[in-house]
Amino acid sequence: MTKKIFSGKFGMICFGMLVSVLMLSSCKKDDTGGPSGSAAEGTIQASVNGKTVTSLKIATFANRISGNLAIQGNTGGTSSEAFSLLITSENGVGTYPIGGGANIANIAAYIKTEIDLSNPGSPKTETWQAPYDATQAGEIKITEISTTNVKGTFYFKAKRSDGNIVDVTNGSFNINF
After folding, report:
1. Cβ neighbourhood burial of 121 (10 Å; 0-12, 13-18, 19+)
2. 92 in any annotated domain
């Protein structure tokens, strides 16, 4: 004989509470929005270990699909730098932690790619990812969002597979969907 875990009224209430907790745990709501940062329209800008990096408008985009918000931008060229931000369970204006718990799946990455034009099929790519342990590695703050545009700020510490850490600070984005 099998026993259903979420059967009856009590089980449905417990299931509803569990789903609510999981949905809300990836976001710390901040309705004030705050400053949107200094990124020009269509770009992502941040300081990586003290050096300013700005993505090209043509190589920067944001997608909002099934409650998730993906933001990516690249500087382009044979020696490029890129940012990738993902907010799961995006719920509008607010502050979203990067890491900091088992139920927080928001992630960020900084990527460097070098392409040798004599061998373009074998680019050298280095990726620093956050979070890299159980602690909060940073945050993404959405200050404005509409059906056509998203603006906000971010910062994070990210680690490469060899243990090297980069500090991404003063990040901002201003991207049309």
Report:
1. exposed
2. yes
Cβ–Cβ < 8 Å for 71, 44: yes
Query: What gap in Å lies between CA 57 and CA 108, rounded to an integer?
Result: 19
**How far apart, in whole angstroms, are the C-alpha atoms of residue 6 and residue 48?**
48
Rounded mean pLDDT for each run of 10 residues along the chain, 177 residues in total: 41 34 36 65 97 97 95 96 96 95 89 94 95 95 96 98 97 96
Quick check: 117 and 106 in contact, CB under 8 A? no
* Residue 153 maps to a domain: yes
- CA 110/CA 82 separation, integer angstroms: 6
DSSP characters for 53-86?
Answer: EE--GGGEEEEEETTEEEEEEE--SSEEEEEEEE
Residue 20 lies in a domain: no
C-alpha–C-alpha distance, residues 110 and 85, integer Å: 9
